[in-house]
Amino acid sequence: LCPSRAMLRAASKLGRRAYGFYYSFPDAGPPGAVHGAELESVFGTYNASSSDQLAPYSSTLSAIMRGYWTSMAKGDPSGPGLPVWPLYGTRGAEMVLGRAVGEGEASSWRTQRCDYWDRYAMAHPATHLARFIAACTLLPFVGAKA
């Protein structure tokens, strides 16, 4: 999450087109959906008879996400009939893909966590591996709310 935010910010500052999203279906709360949970929606691979689904499924969300990914291949995710997906840093900070699809700000929990790691990285620029290990170790303790 935090390296993705850093990449979006850097690209935006350089004048590059960048689009960020946060997959929030189902409404999992912090820390949110796991990495890859959106893939069934992106590829429309829901199988009602399978017990191997990664997450609950919404055919409406899947249709929107497939539209976004197809339009993104053409250069802009905001295709015909889709909610407008703004560039990162213009209006909302990112696109929230969940029960309701629309732009939104990152949660304060995620913002505080990423701000912490950004400060850490600036203070320790040569410790990328140490930063990764610390993130894995300290994640439950940094900015988490019960």
Largest sheet: 3 strands, mixed
N→C terminal distance: 20 Å
Rg on CA atoms, Å: 17 Å
- Give the overall shape: globular
Count of individual beta strands:
3
| Strand line-up across the major sheet | 1-2-3
Residue stretches low in confidence (pLDDT < 50, at least 5 long) are 139-146
Class from helix and strand fractions: mainly alpha
Helix content: 40-55%
Order of helices and strands: HEHHEEHH
Query: In what range is the share of β-strand residues?
Result: 5-15%
Number of helices: 5
Walk me through the structure.
This protein is mainly α and 146 residues long. It is 40% helix and 8% strand. The protein has five helices and three strands. The chain has helices at residues 2-13, 39-43, 59-73, 108-123, 128-138; strands at residues 21-23, 94-97, 101-104. Strands 1-2-3 form a three-stranded mixed sheet, with no helix packed on it. Helix 1 (2-13) packs across helix 4 (108-123). The model is unreliable at 139-146 (pLDDT under 50).
What's the gist of this structure?
This protein is mainly α. The protein is built from five helices and three strands, in the order αβααββαα.
Structural features:
146 residues, mainly alpha, 3-stranded mixed β-sheet, globular, disordered C terminus
